[in-house]
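Chapter summary example: a protein plus calcium ion.
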Amino acid sequence: MKPQLKAAAQMATILIVEDELEMARGLRDLLEFESHRVMLAEDGASGLRLSRSLEPDLIVLDLMLPDMDGYEVCRQVRSQNSRVPILMLTARGQEHDVIRGFEAGVDDYVTKPFSVAQLLARIKALLRRSQAPAADTQKFQIGSWWVDCDTFSLRCGQEQTPLTYYEVEILKLLHHHQNQPVSRDTIFQKVWGMAADPTNRAVDNFIAKLRKKIEADQKNPQHLITVYGMGYKLIP
Ligand code: CA
């Protein structure tokens, strides 16, 4: 038993971008209690600055910030070619915001007011996935694309399209079960590492994003097939 090593492996640098200082500080105290190193940013610009200098292991990003919205922060983080997991905080019932968030590169979201236990579970799941040791070298083909799991990209000749961490994980799972339907719940459980939440649209949103990248005609997909009432199936 080497408890110190275990603790060190679980410790992460977390950046919280949130202008409601009371909430941000409360969250920082909780995460520091769990042995994480936490930095706070009160607006998007300082969030982006800290994201570049700190290279955090996770960003908790509020949607409504004084200088720019969370989508813009997310887009700029992603444009720095960073794959850091981003958890967005949104107000309840703003499904539209959630979809825009996934488009901008958010990995998961929690709606305010949130339960502390739920938020910590989400953070833990995101960190567990991103800190997992790199999987064995993998490349596989979908249509004319090669999915390169090491460089997080789709390649076809000279053409290259970047993929995010969760996009790669979903493709790996569907590829593993190719030509068989995989339920949304299974995808959520295996990829996000936690029990499925029927209100969470993450899986559908990620499939929509993947279709944009992979399918010649998104409305008539040939590879990422919807299995009605069930989930999705990959036909390579
Ligand atoms: Ca706010």
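Key point: DSSP finds nine helices and twelve strands in the chain.
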